[in-house]
Write a structure and sequence with these properties.
It is a multi-pass membrane protein. Pfam families: MFS_1 (PF07690). This is MFS transporter. This protein is an all-alpha fold. It is built from 19 helices and no strands. The protein has helices at about 1-15, 25-30, 35-60, 65-85, 90-115, 120-150, 155-160, 160-175, 190-210, 215-240, 255-285, 290-295, 295-315, 320-335, 345-375, 380-415, 420-430, 430-440, 445-485. α16 (about 380-415) packs antiparallel against α19. It is globular and about 70 Å long.
Length: about 500
């Protein structure tokens, strides 16, 4: 049963990062606009984030086994649809449906582990395995994507899920416990609608402000304000409900609020940046998808190592030093990339990726520790739900905002090239992947000149994105240094009470 639940989590973790390496091939095939490409990458996390608490609550009410089985079906159908999408809109909708399936499965896996492993020591081991699989899935994502794109086509990154789920579905039906839910467990439909629509409206508004290609700037501002209003309404409603979706009252604890802020901003800073770095490796440095995936492995391996070391660092140095130090290390490791252009930096690339992965994971586990230590035991479930939501929301908004920053800086930097039609230049300004596609079609000296200018513009845009990420990491580190107490954490070993796929 543990193997089955961890396999379920592995699918969700891999799917969050597998598409990063496939962006150039996908762009060449479907020719999405910059906004459409951001939605293709981002909609998965943006759908998962608000639905985690919703489906967790529904699982408590109607039975977790039902939601795992239904999630398998939804995930499989969505994977099949995504693999054979004929255009950007079809792929966006399929990715959104994948997010629905992932949100149905993920909370139930952790709940069933807690239900099945009644012995405390066995449960701790099971949760440790569950947590390691989550981190390992993020590490495997780019590499799996690289292998599949290299030897098949971009749709294979989705199609591979289908045969795996065909095998897993009958096993899950046989092995998972049949315990029913609690029909008396409350479920507030308006809260579910407010949280989901609020996040999606906010993200869409942010994307449109950066590009303005779908509805225009003024409507985008109105949509973004509407999203903020819905989230404010959602927050106010949670304060009034006897059994809220999210326990907003936990934010009155300073340590809890800072921990959630650290999770949100750290993941925000780095998930979007990982997408840009994957494109940098392939389209600026010229790596194949497989090589790009392999070159990003030091970041993931270092993240796993940071997770293993974090408990010892917390015991030795205390909460404030561990969190601040992890964030500072991540920011310092990012800094050398501001000097990079189109030249190769194989050793420094590995060192920087390792520093980023180790620092971020140490800081995130320290944040998890202060979140769970600040919440009383009776409210631990609500604290874990908020932390999970902060992870997914940070990932979704990170791709949206940092992708928007990249677009704002990149597009004006691509100068017109003699011999390239204005319509083709407009397409090239959508993204670096689009520019590579246009350059291949144009060919000759004009195509080479276009690609050189697009690479230079993308490097400038990447530097701007890195500056934003470093600034956010610095602000979070200073906040932790000033506001967190010196005393060591009350919980020496951070528990994996959340989905740990930060990168």
């Amino acid at each position: 049963m543990l193997a089955l639940l961890c396999f379920s989590l592995l699918l969700i973790a891999v799917d969050a990062t597998v598409l990063h390496i496939a962006v150039p091939a996908l762009t060449a095939a479907l020719e999405p606009s910059a906004v459409e490409l951001l939605w293709i990458i981002d909609v998965y996390s943006l759908v998962v984030a608000p639905l985690l608490v919703t489906f967790g609550t529904l699982g408590d009410r109607y039975g977790k086994r039902r939601f795992v089985l239904a999630g398998y079906v939804v995930f499989g159908v969505a994977s099949l649809a995504a693999a054979f999408s004929g255009g950007p809109l079809a792929l966006i909708l399929s990715r959104a449906l994948l997010g629905v399936g992932g949100a149905m499965i993920m909370p139930a896996t952790l709940s069933i582990i807690r239900q099945v492993f009644t012995d405390r020591r066995e449960r701790a081991i099971a949760l440790g395995v569950w947590s390691a699989v989550a981190a390992g899935g993020a590490a495997l994502g780019p590499l799996v994507g690289g292998v599949l794109v290299e030897h098949f086509w971009w749709g294979a990154v989705f199609l591979i899920n289908v045969p795996l789920l065909v095998v897993a579905l009958p096993l899950a039906a046989r092995l998972l416990p049949r315990a029913g839910g609690d029909p008396g467990h409350g479920w507030d439909v308006p809260s579910a609608a407010l949280s989901t629509l609020g996040v999606l409206f906010l993200a869409f508004g942010l994307k449109e402000l950066g590009h303005g290609g779908t509805v225009g700037t003024a409507p985008a501002v109105a949509i973004m304000i509407a999203g903020v209003g819905l989230l404010v309404w959602f927050t106010a409603r949670q304060r009034r409900l006897a059994r809220p979706f999210l326990d907003i009252g936990l934010f009155s604890e300073r340590g809890f609020a800072i921990g959630v802020l650290c999770v949100l901003l750290a993941v925000f800073s780095l998930v979007g940046l990982q997408l840009m770095l994957a494109q940098y490796l392939q389209l600026v440095l010229g790596d194949s998808p497989l090589r790009a995936g392999a070159r990003m492995l030091p970041l993931m391996i270092a993240a796993i190592a940071g997770g293993l070391c974090a408990a010892h660092l917390l015991q030795r140095f205390g909460l404030r030093a561990t969190m601040t130090g992890g964030l500072a290390l991540a920011g310092l490791a990012l800094a050398p990339t501001l000097l990079w252009g189109a030249e190769q930096h194989p050793v420094m690339l590995c060192v920087c990726f390792a520093g980023i992965g180790f620092g971020v994971e140490v800081a995130l586990l320290a944040a998890s520790d202060t979140i769970m230590a600040s919440a009383p035991e009776s409210r631990a479930g609500g604290a874990a739900a908020i932390e999970e939501t902060a992870y997914e929301l940070g990932a979704g908004l990170g791709v949206a905002v940092l992708g928007t920053v990249t677009t704002i800086v990149y597009a004006p930097g691509v100068a017109a090239v003699p011999g390239v039609a204005p319509a083709a230049m407009g397409q090239a300004r959508e993204s670096l992947a689009s520019a590579a596609h246009v350059a291949r079609e144009v060919g000759g000296p004009a195509g080479d000149s276009l690609m050189d200018g697009a690479r230079a513009a993308f490097v400038t845009a990447l530097h701007s994105t890195i500056l934003v990420s470093v600034a956010l990491l610095a602000v979070t580190a200073i906040t932790a240094l000033v506001l967190l107490p010196r005393r060591p954490s009350r919980s020496p070993v951070p528990g994996p009470d959340r989905e740990r796929i930060p990168l």
